Each structure stands twice: as C-alpha cells, then as structure tokens.
Amino acid sequence: MKWISLFLIFMLSGCSSDPDTSQAKPYQLNKIEDSSYPGRVRYSVSISSSEVTTHEEFAQTAIRAALNVQRSKNADVVWVYLEPSEAVAGYGLAYAIANYSPDGGGNDGSQGWTWEVSAAEKLIPEIELMVVEEWREHRGKFQVNGLTDEPALKAYLSKKLDISVQDIGLPWVNRRDYPM
Fold first, then answer.
1. Is residue 114's pLDDT more than 60?
2. CB contact burial 78-110 (16+ within 10 A = b; e otherwise)
3. Helix axes 126-138, 150-161, angle to 10 degrees
4. 82: enclosing H helix or E strand
C-alpha cells in the first residue's frame, strides 16, 4: 500500500518529461514550412520575440515553440529558429535553435537524439540589426558580376544611416549548447 501511495503522489505531483520553459517569453510565429517525407513529419519554424534578452530566455522560448508546434502538428521533428526579427529571418542570426524529435529518431528517424538546443548569450545591438535590415534591402543594387560590391554598399549604408563605414558589417551570433 505504501508503494501505491508513493506512486500516486509521484504521478499527481505534476512531474513531466517536458523541459523547463519557465523563462520562455511570448513569441510571434513568422513562418512554418513542412519538409515532411513519407514516414517522417517534419516542420521548420521561424519565430521572433521582442521580450527575450538572456541565454535562458532565448533557449526556453525556442523550446516552448518546438513543443507547441510538435503537439499541434503531431510532428516527428521540429526545427525552431528564434530570430531577432522577421525582417532578418534566415540570415544566420538566430538567437536560439531548438531541434526536437520526441521519438528520439532525429531528422531521419535513426539519429538517436531528442533535443539539440543552442542559444546566444546576448542580443544583437539595435544599430547592427538596422545595418542587417538595410543591407538585406539594398544589397541587390550593388551586384557586380554576381557578387556584392561590399565597399560601395558599405559607403551607401554609412551615408544613409549616418554611421562610420567601419561600423558597417554583419554581426556574428555566437550560440552555445543549452543543456537538456
């Protein structure tokens, strides 16, 4: 009887196999793409949040989105990219990446992972995000033989944004693994 009571206490205590998302922030769903193939339901998701600021918030917001999409789509695999904004989505600047495969099969069903999560330590400064957005918008005007004339683009953006040419560049987001 004692073991049954302990088991019931354990089951009713709210124990869950879900990872901690207590520091997750509200997010906006920017884009969801189905990349399923027969036998494997897979979704790639872009989200953004104006409220995230820390490593834990980045990671846990992406984790929460992965859980939500997986449950709503009954997906085998979900890849979530927490982007600084919808405008710079897909530029490799994700604050967090959360890959979730609840069956432990990973991308193809045989890879042996359930979670792969990495997150940045800090926000990209606002001026650097402005440079990225302007770079993306105007880059097409500075193509020469299929390549971007970066010195000309930097000079243009420097004048437009009223900042030094030396301050024009694309930021680097250094993500580190988030323990699961």
1. yes
2. bbbbbbbbeebbebebbbbbbbbbbeebbbeee
3. 130
4. strand 77-83
Dist. CA 12–CA 138, nearest whole Å: 57
What does the block give as tokens for 80?
């979530």
Is residue 133 within a helix (H) or strand (E), and if so which, with residue range? helix 126-138
Name the β-bridge partners of 48.
28, 83
CA angle (81, 130, 26) in 5-degree steps: 40
Determine the Cα–Cα distance for residues 12 and 177; give it in Å rounded to an integer. Answer: 32
Cα gap 84→119, rounded to integer Å: 12
What pTM was computed for the model? 0.86
Minimal CA–CA distance to 63: which of 107, 127, 20? 20
Handedness of CA 89, 94, 95, 98 (dihedral sign): positive
Residue 1 has pLDDT above 70, yes or no: no
Rounded distance between C-alpha atoms, residue 88 and residue 77, angstroms: 24
